[in-house]
Amino acid sequence: MSETITLGEMTIAVFRKEIKHVHLSVHPPDGRVTLSAPTATRLEVARAYAISKLGWIREQQQRLAKQARETPRQYIERESHSLWGRRYLMRVVQRECKPFVTLDHRRITLTVRPGSDANRRAEVMHAWHKSLLHQAVPPLVSKWEQKLGVKVRGYFLQRMKTKWGSCNHRAGHIRLNTELVKKPKDLLEYVIVHEMAHLIEPTHSDRFIALLEEHYPTWREARAELNELPLTAESWRE
């Protein structure tokens, strides 16, 4: 269970970990702040560190507040949709058949039954997004199993409100946010590597950072790019 530090209206969650240094993080999309500290760190010391970084924290929160947010998708004709980091215009075809989605170099064609509402169209698109991820994820997992010397016993795709991925290192499972289908494929690979590295080191320790530095040296750039891309219109809460 985490402790908390309160600085005016700001609340910072404090987590004790087997690490050497204090780490502050400001998380998208809403600017939530966490502080990871070595297990023996006194709360007063963590608080003083947070105070010394207040300017940086507020700067990061302001950047996130200005970050572009996608308007809610209605799944209508000529609406703009993202796929693997590119923008496509949507074409909607109404036909008495099982709904399906096709892609060409300029547009996403959504075929649905007449009278299908936005929720039903969203379900069809989400199922298609998952099918694309099921094509893209296994080769990347296989590639990094060999590089990292680990075994993924299973992966799962789901909507996740506050994370791009997660790892259950005991079960050998990773979970990936289905929103990753909208981002460039190299960012999907970064998230997979990040979660698979947790099979070796469960926490964000110095050892974990060293693993990323060794195997995916551009991880900081990938993380920054991922967090600067437009957020979905959903209200993200834990």
Q: Any overview of this molecule?
A:
By secondary structure, the protein is an alpha/beta fold. It has 6 helices and 11 strands. It has helices at residues 43-52, 54-66, 118-148, 185-197, 206-215, 219-228, and strands at 3-7, 10-17, 23-27, 32-38, 80-83, 86-94, 100-103, 107-112, 154-158, 165-168, 173-177. The chain has a 4-stranded mixed β-sheet with strand order 1-2-4-3, covered by helices on one side. Strands 5-6-8-7 form a 4-stranded mixed β-sheet, with helices on one face. A 3-stranded mixed β-sheet has the order 9-11-10, covered by helices on one side. The chain is globular, with a radius of gyration of 20 Å.
* Main β sheet profile: 4 strands, mixed
Order of helices and strands: EEEEHHEEEEHEEEHHH
Cα radius of gyration in angstroms: 20 Å
Strand percent estimate: 25-35%
Overall 3D shape: globular
Strand line-up of the largest beta sheet: 1-2-4-3
Total count of strands:
11
Q: Determine the structural class based on helices, strands and strand pairing.
A: alpha/beta
Instruction: Specify the number of helices.
Output: 6
Q: Into which percent range does the helicity of residues fall?
A: 25-40%
Quick recap:
This protein has helices at 43-52, 54-66, 118-148, 185-197, 206-215, 219-228, and strands at 3-7, 10-17, 23-27, 32-38, 80-83, 86-94, 100-103, 107-112, 154-158, 165-168, 173-177. The protein has 238 residues and is of the alpha/beta class. The longest helix is centred in the middle third of the chain and has 31 residues, at 118-148.
